Amino acid sequence: MITDSTDLDRLAEELTAVIDHVAATFGEGALPTVRGELDCDPARPGLLTCWQYGVRLERPAHAERRLVELVVPRLERDGWQVHDRSNALELIARCSRDGADFTVHVARSGAGVAIVGSTRCVTP
Amino acid sequence: MTSAPTAGGYRVVPARLDQVAGELGGQADALATAQSTVAGERLPAAAFGELAGSAAAAAAFTKTTTGIADRLGKKVDRIRSVQTGLTGSAAGYRRLDTRVAAMYRALLPEDPLPAAGRPAGAGGGADTGAWAGEITRNRAKVADALTGERKHLAGLLAHGGEAEDIARARRRIALYEDILAHNRQILRFDPAGDGRIAELIGHLEPGTHSVGVFVPGTNTRLDNFDGYAGLGRSLVAADPAGRTAMVVWADGVFPQGVVAEAPDSAYSRAQAPDLKAFTDELRGQIASHAGRDVMVTAIGHSYGGATVGLAEGLGLDVDRVLHVESAGMGHGIWSPADLPPSQAGVQRYSMTAPFDPIVLAQGNAGVAEWLGSDLGHGADPDTFPGVTELDTGRDAHGDVLWGLSAHNDVLKPGSDSWQNIYDVITGGTVTPEGSSAPRGFGERGFAGPNTLRTIP
Predict the structure, then answer these.
(1) What is the arithmetic mean of pLDDT over A49-73?
(2) Minimal Cα distance from B178: which residue of A?
(3) Which of B70, B104, B138 is the last residue of a domain?
(4) Nearest residue of B to residue A113 by CA position?
């Protein structure tokens, strides 16, 4: 766990930009689902916090193909490690870099795309 | 007949299983009556007069009737055992039917959510049901509590209060302000003491597939509740179809100390009936707002696992149970036979990170419980028969989750453990303990040109 005093605002800004950029690949109209600080250890509130951010698109265009052909290669070029957690219901790409993470969930039924992630944990 | 022949084999008819179980129950009752009558037959030594051998004849009679009564008693036990098994089988078949139906439905094109995600379900704008009223009432309670907590904080600051008390007051105020600012759906609220609260995240509406009920553990209080609520928010936000809801349930008094209070089962024994009652109410809300085919998962973290386990002992109405770094299956629960027939067919999962000290609590108080102590939380969930043990894996850094810090780190989004929690709730593909964590996109085989299949 990172415990330095990195500026959470800067990390949040970076993560938000990446997630918004990924969301834009799937189309317009992404709506925020979560946005705010989160205690990394709920039992010890205030000790370590991260920023959590997520969006959802209800009507993505060609989401599966865009995830595989556009999003994943671009993220890997940018230094993100991308892990496959897909199942019968969803394509799931879990992305992490320097302790930040986000997952891209694409419903195989075409019902939507959700992206949710958090920054690394820092001392507030 | 408890099954009907079909073109492809036999179809089990759970109602017939219930009927046969009922008939067996009646037969067992009749036999038990006969058994107690025979067991009560006794002859005085002089029953055959003063003849020589009268006492011996009476003793032989008693021995014979006792033997018959014993054999009848064993038959009664066997019939009741079969009856219990049939009842459990019927419940299991029903649960399986529901689960399979839900899985098939999940593979079909989705019906649109009402009003593009602005639902009329529980907690939605058009809801006038019981929980809508509850949410409105609790909003007023939270507003009152905010006023009170601000005064409390002012007093602490004015009179040199302890730093920890000041920090807790500030965290409570932040929680109350956030609840009011974001119209959070508070289903239970009581600020007294360490506080009690339960929150619905997401909505129960037509199209809802999955609902999770998360029960936190030791040291849970109002001032740190939002950390657990954040877990619920992340799980709801991850569903691309928007069909998952979560309840974070902390409507109880939690132990405040790992050594002094957490080993005591008194807290879980007090919480379990409330959790059972709440889940029954949740089922009712789901039935009226979302239909009957919604998968409900109870997730118990740490001490919360023991609470979920004891609630199962009371017939907790869920489809899946997930123990996360759990203290145990619940005080006195050492085998599936300690659970009621209603729990047949419940899918159980458990995950414990390596070297999390919680292993000291898991299944290690058997003697104490046997001696009647209130200490201990039953069997080890990881090795309980029928439980699928899951991998806790790595965090977002790629580091293996282990040791004391892993106890709560497993809840952090971005970890393999968080992904497993999500998969259990949504019916995805879990990663069992010992299976290698996928490394590199495409390891599961969908990155190539022929792998963009919508349904495998």
Answers:
(1) 93
(2) A36
(3) B104
(4) B240
